[in-house]
Amino acid sequence: MSGLETTPTPAASRPAAPRRHTARRRSANSTTGNGPGRGVGSRSRSGGSSAVARLRTAFLAAWPALALYAFVRFVGTAVVAWRAGGDGPGLGKLLATRFDTVYYVHIAEAGYAAPLAENCTVQGELCKYAFFPVYPGLVRGFSSVTPFSTEIVAWGVSVLSSLVAAWGIFAVAQHLHDRRTALFAVVLWGIVPHAMVQSMAYTEPLFTALAAWALYAVLKQHWITAGLLASLTGLTRPSGSAVVAAVALCAAWALFATFRKRQKEAPPGAGRGRLLAAILIAPVGWFAWFGWVGYRAGRWDGYFQLQERWGSTFDGGSFTMGRIVDTFTKMPTNLNAVVATFTVLGALLLFVICLLERQHAAPLIYAALLLLIAVGGAGYFHSKARFLLPAFPLLFPLAKAFATARPRVAYAVVTAAVLVSSAYGSYLMLVWKYSP
Predict the structure, then answer these.
(1) Cα(121)–Cα(115) distance, rounded to whole angstroms?
(2) CA quadruple 31, 32, 37, 42: dihedral positive or negative?
(3) Cα 106 to the center of its chain, rounded Å
(4) Which of 229, 247, 355, 369 maximizes the CB count within 10 A of its CB?
């Protein structure tokens, strides 16, 4: 076909390739860690250095997104401080001492058994067991080694967790799409309607951080890590069940797939062991807390009974749909109800788009269960947007659209969205009288 084409030499007439340095290679393998005789010391040193190198590379890739995220959250917080003025309660009190923070701070300082009179007359002595232990445990630990008040430590844990969450969101989005899409995903997460909660002493930032890195571990097939992180999410918020399901179902499917392959193609037994371990580890935290609350309440469904006393039940979505209809048909309404309505409807639409785009199973399962929990729960309609705050995979279609749009248009829209988000954040903090 061309002048460069040659006729292959018959195998019998080809000279045998020289076997060089076989002994040298074998001896090198026994000392450098490429063979079965590698030493433990060399393995740990190389593994440690490679882990540090990977972490450094990942951070260098993510730092522009983290810087932009920190900037948009700074703008949102600065607007609240500016609107509050000098006569208000002060920025620190607004961010670190309101609503659910009261319970977490009290748990961190005195534990679950100590009585708390404020807002607990209806729920009884077990009222604080509605709040999961990982966040107050971290606050208690850091409070014991820092000179700051428990409220400030609680706020600091949330802010640091929000940065870790932003990094995890970037990692997941970059793995599934590309770096530019990941950057926009992080910025969009920083300006969603209830993004102000990311700067408050609430559990959503910590939960999102654990969930994002658990999903990333699934994508990278680090099954033990995914199982451990999923177990921690089950001790952070009741919606940790969404992470547990995503990890356990993906691990179960991968395990099932190994048995469908021919024996010679199947991964080694250790790989199956890791998959099985992830399935078993992931739900431990969630079941442990529900079991403990049930034990304290004296009945197996003690946690659900406690949530019912708090006014939170599950009705499949009839309450939420009814409130959405009321928003459009009954006047007057309030701004938070309008935002909650459009957040729920927008989340449902984005989930359909994620399905059509055939997103990876792990983020799809996670987002689907968060939607089910938020939309299917009765009560607290004004907090539906906050409940959906950790559902960051729903932002990926928007992020991809911004990434492929003309830069001037994308930057203009995002800038306007930052200002609107900041203004709404000040409304939540200074006008709205209930928990965001």
Answers:
(1) 10
(2) positive
(3) 25
(4) 247
**Pairwise CA distance, residues 306 & 18, whole Å:** 76
Burial of 69 (0-12, 13-18, 19+ CB in 10 A): buried
Structure tokens at 154: 């609680």
- Tell me if the bond preceding 36 is cis, omega within 30° of 0: no
Q: Are 105 and 151 in contact (CB under 8 A)?
A: yes
Residue 233 tokens read as 């999410």
Contact in structure between 168 and 225 (CB atoms under 8 Å) = no
145 CB contacts (<8 Å, ≥6 apart)?
none
Alpha-carbon distances, residue 281 vs 221, 230, 237 (angstroms) = 15, 8, 17
Q: Distance between CA 108 and CA 106 in Å, rounded?
A: 5
Q: Are 327 and 341 in contact (CB under 8 A)?
A: yes
Measured distance CA(153)–CA(135) in Å, rounded: 11
156-203, pLDDT tens digit by residue?
999 999 999 999 999 999 999 999 999 999 999 999 999 999 999 999
Task: Identify the weakest region by mean pLDDT among 116-120, 132-136, 193-197, 232-236.
Answer: 116-120
> For position 123, what pLDDT does the model report?
53
Q: Which element (helix H / strand E) includes 102?
A: helix 101-110
Angle at 308 between CA 302 and CA 314, to 5 degrees: 105
The answer on pLDDT for 343 being more than 90 is: yes
* 8 Å CB contact between 234 and 286: yes
| Half-sphere exposure of residue 182: CA atoms within 13 angstroms, side-chain side | 24
Structure tokens at 178: 């590309």
Q: Are 316 and 376 in contact (CB under 8 A)?
A: yes
The answer to whether the Cα torsion of 394, 398, 404, 408 is positive or negative is: negative
Are 365 and 247 a contacting pair, CB within 8 Å? no
Whole-angstrom Cα distance, residue 173 to residue 357? 14
Contact at 8 Å (CB) between 430 and 84? yes
Name which of 427, 429, 329, 315 is nearest 381 in CA terms: 315
